[in-house]
Design brief:
Helix content is 28%, strand content 36%. It has 354 residues and is of the alpha+beta class. The protein has 3 domains: 42-54 and 278-349, Beta Barrel (conserved putative lor/sdh protein from methanococcus maripaludis s2 fold), CATH 2.40.420.20; 59-67 and 198-272, Elongation Factor Tu (Ef-tu), domain 3, CATH 2.40.30.170; 71-194, Beta Barrel (OB fold (Dihydrolipoamide Acetyltransferase, E2P)), CATH 2.40.50. Strands 3-12-15-14-13-16 form a 6-stranded antiparallel beta barrel. It has a 4-stranded antiparallel sheet with strand order 2-17-21-20, with no helix packed on it. A 4-stranded antiparallel sheet has the order 4-11-9-6, with no helix packed on it.
Length: 354
């Protein structure tokens, strides 16, 4: 009798264990399936594009220089015996700056002029004798040629003597001198610099990237740190057509409304607004861009999946970038997690607003 009772009870417990194990297996399979589903989606962080103007002003710095600076070079060689002007002196056109020793040249001129007078008398005598047949035509022409050579020699000596007095070619202020009394001056050597005129300009160097955003005649704002950042207006006057050896383009900015406090050699900063800044553009985070700025693309999220979009970029700074085409203002743009994305892959948005 006891055996009859034990057997059904055992069968019941065995069935119960089998049912529990089966149920647990089903639950584990469901969890595993859910886990696999979750793991097939890639977590990303997104943002919404916005319309705005990107603050992309170009900040450059440089040195204020005179609009016109004359470099005076010596046409003669010799010892400087007198210095008439020094740095800072105001000069008028034709004023003497230095005098080079010319005693030897003057003596040579005196001798040449005496020889010329002698040649002139000889020719007059030859002309008289030639009419009498005492002097041949060839002898007369030879004397006349010698006279012309002497005239050229005298003219050359006068020019050399004149060049020993170095004068200002234009009116202005002497910004620098290079010669002192007793010093040897060489032909072609620098004597002085003259700032001619009252206009000043700021000279800056721009990268090849920035120079494309700057146009001639564009109004700019200039600040001078040494004058407590006093502001001056300016206008872009000259943009170099060719870069220098360091791949920078020289830009001259003409200053307007200047006063005596502003002087050549001062350091200054300039703020230039780039071209095409008037219209608003779609703005997104720069970190959303993949593939660099030459061939930029990004990912948008639509219906739970990521889609690749090639875009045309505009101005940019360290944090943001303008998008001219490729996305709309209503798109959801991925700005983090792009490294694992491919076109059409499912994604989960971590910063999704409920």
């Amino acid at each position: 009798m006891k055996m009859r009772i034990i057997i059904p009870v055992s069968i019941f417990f065995i069935g119960l264990v089998i049912w529990i194990l089966s149920t647990n297996k089903k639950m584990m399979e469901d969890k595993l399936e859910q886990s696999m589903i979750v793991n097939t989606t890639i977590p990303v962080i997104t943002e919404s594009p916005r319309f705005s103007r990107l603050n992309n002003d170009i900040m450059l710095n440089g040195t204020i220089i005179p609009d016109k600076e004359v470099f005076i070079l010596s046409k003669a060689e010799g010892i400087c015996i007198h210095k008439y002007k020094k740095t800072g002196d105001r000069v008028q056109k034709g004023d003497a700056i230095i005098q080079i020793e010319n005693t030897v040249l003057k003596k040579s001129l005196t001798i040449a002029q005496a020889d010329y007078a002698k040649f002139l008398k000889d020719i007059q005598r030859y002309q008289s004798l030639q009419t009498q047949g005492a002097v041949s035509q060839q002898e007369l022409e030879s004397s006349q040629m010698s006279l012309r050579e002497m005239e050229e020699h005298i003219t050359n000596l006068k020019d050399q003597i004149e060049n020993t007095t170095i004068v200002a070619p234009s009116s202005g202020i002497i910004s620098k001198t290079f010669v002192e009394e007793g010093q040897l001056v060489t032909t072609g050597g620098e004597v002085a610099h003259i700032i001619s005129g009252s206009e000043l300009k700021l000279q800056v160097n721009a990268t090849e990237e920035d120079v494309l955003k700057i146009s001639k005649n564009r109004k700019v704002k200039i600040q001078v740190p040494s004058l407590e950042n006093e502001s001056f207006s300016g206008i872009v006057d000259i943009i170099a057509p060719k870069a220098n050896n360091l791949h920078f383009y020289t830009i001259d900015i003409k200053l307007e409304g200047i006063d005596e406090s502003l002087k050549p050699g001062m350091y200054a900063n300039v703020n230039i607004q780039p071209l095409e800044k008037e219209t608003q553009q779609i703005i997104i985070s720069r970190k959303a861009i993949v593939g660099g700025l030459k061939r930029p693309y990004l990912f948008i999220v639509k219906n739970g999946k990521a889609y690749k979009r090639s875009v045309q970029s505009g101005f940019y700074n360290d944090r943001e970038i303008e998008i001219k085409s490729g996305i709309s203002i209503d798109d959801v743009v991925v700005n983090s997690g792009q490294i694992n994305l491919t076109d059409g892959v499912p994604v989960s948005i971590l910063n999704k607003q409920d």
